[in-house]
Fold:
Amino acid sequence: MYSPQPIDLAWMTYLGIFSMQHRGQEAAGICVSDGERFHVEKDLGLVTQVFDERRLDSLRLANARVSIGHVRYSTTGSNLRFNAQPLTTRTNKGILGLVHNGNFVNAREVRDTMLMEGALFATTNDSEVMLNLIARESHMDLVQATAAAMQQLKGGYACVLMSRTQLIGFRDPNGVRPLVIGQRDGENGNVGAYVLASEPCALFAVGARLLRDVLPGELVWIDRDGLHSLMVHPGTPTPCAFEWIYFARVDSVIDGVDSHAARLRMGAQLAREQPVEADIVVPVPDSGMVAAIGYARESGIPFDYGLYKNPYAGRTFIAPTQEARELKVKMKLSPTAAVAGKRVILVDDSIVRGTTSRQIVNLLREAGATEVHFRVCSPPIKHPCYYGIDTAARKELVASTHSIEEIRELIGADTLSFISEQGLRDAVDGPGLCLACFNGEYPAGTPMVNDLDKLA
Ligand code: SF4
Ligand code: MG
Structure:
């Protein structure tokens, strides 16, 4: 956030990252500056675990002007404390802080070159390569330095950088990862604070309204003179389809596409493409919820609450190991009496490894479901994501090694079908899309070295 007037930026940033908790649960951090001091607090854990009243107080600078915050889910760089963000570094332009969502596909090469030239790295995080590149160019104006760094790193990313006096946001040329701009109403005729965030719900959390999305390849900056923009790298928009399938909150509008409406259309599309006779439509909560409503409405088959989800369990997929994921499914889901004696259409957003799906089908059968028809709101995931969604290594992706019929057998469903790629495009009905994990066409490049995880 950037606020021309002193406001409680520590608290606002806390509210903002709390509303983004679904995007990452491994670590959280906030950095605040009052133009002189620069204070960072970060640690492993959920937002509410990392920040207590005392820690938040330490961030409450009286004349706070600029702040950034982050929730982390590791794709590149392991789940270690020193990989938590914001990352900070000292430069010619004073101290800088960076938060990053996404993945740079050429981070390894750029990092190797920089190491040979004498650069030092404190983390195994690809975000640090971006921060170091900016720092290295910081003899220039900070906006120019950032634009120069954007030209060197490729991939899917949205970043927010802060100095003591400026807030800078930038989005990759394909706009794979989302980034929005918002503004609070100013008090007493003053200009209100500006906010940059991955999703609009973070803007609303701090009382800001959505101004617009940052455009693919655009850099925006905010200083005492207001909001400015520079188109660094115009490209073809191909935002990540997964944002609408699963990742974004259901109350978010990204690149003009409402996530709730898109999921309803996905469900309806699936019902038209893959109809089946059954008694009830049951969502896998929460990610399959809205699509199941869409399926039920379109098919005329009643929607029912067939699976209870313990609201205190986190997202299963994001648990970093297989054992953790399996245990979490048991802790998280249990069938209700609604499914007993029923032919069930089970709707979920995606099948990644197939482990959750198998367990869920099992749960329903044990609870007396007579048939289980699995309907999936994304096409089969056959390829890894190099742009910041941890859809697992290729060998773990069940659809990369198994046919649909084999997956059906593996998960124990009576029938299994996925939305078609065209059906998904039609349902999102927005800009062009990245569908690389489904069709292998990577709009923002692929890594040359295949061990992105090993930025050691
Ligand atoms: Fe999103 Fe898949 Fe593209 Fe990754 S590969 S950015 S998950 S659509
Ligand atoms: Mg799910």
About this structure: The first strand starts at residue 27 and ends at 33. Residues 284, 287, 348-349 surround magnesium ion (ligand 2) (CB under 6 Å). The chain has 16 helices and 20 strands.
